[in-house]
Design brief:
153 residues; alpha+beta; Transcription Termination Factor Rho, Rna-binding Domain, Chain A, Domain 1; 3 domains; elongated; disordered C terminus
Length: 153
């Protein structure tokens, strides 16, 4: 029953609470939290089975979740919790400023500009311009929203 086959997740609901607790112990290597209901055990175990079969979260996703958790712990302003633009690692961003072309590489851990690592595009935009900027806006990552009834052409 506890092999890593495709039907294992669907069979979780047929297990008793005691069987689920034993499966939890084998899967996580520790006892389930006290008082965890059967209805909660099943989705946690199903997720763990999927993670074992198909892999876990991407490093960028883990980093984003950690960033959100830190902001929630600090009870920070909502701007810190807003979603960052989804730019995949390996992407190159270009911006001409004062006649000079600037290239930024998106990495798994942030951004690189001229051999220096940065955590945010805003830090790079500030470095380039000498003033505070929204990095995503500076590099053109915000979609232009036209007013209703207006056309850009």
């Amino acid at each position: 029953m506890y092999r890593n086959d495709t039907g294992q997740i669907s069979r979780l609901s047929a297990l008793s609470r005691q069987e689920l607790l034993a499966f939890w112990q084998r899967t996580y290597g520790k006892a389930a939290p006290d008082g965890m209901r059967r209805e909660i055990l099943i989705p946690f175990l199903a997720y763990k089975l999927q993670e074992n079969a198909y892999g876990g979260l991407k490093p960028a996703t883990r980093a984003e979740l950690r960033r959100i958790a830190r902001a929630l712990e600090r009870k920070s302003a909502s701007s810190e919790l807003s979603a960052r633009p989804k730019v995949k690692p390996g992407t190159r961003l270009f911006r001409r400023w004062s006649g000079e072309m600037h290239e930024v590489f998106v990495t798994e851990r942030g951004y690189e500009h001229r051999g220096v690592d940065y955590r945010s595009l805003s830090q790079i935009a500030c470095h380039i311009t000498g003033t505070r900027w929204s990095g995503p806006a500076f590099f053109g990552l915000h979609k232009n929203k036209s007013l209703p009834g207006r056309s850009d052409g």
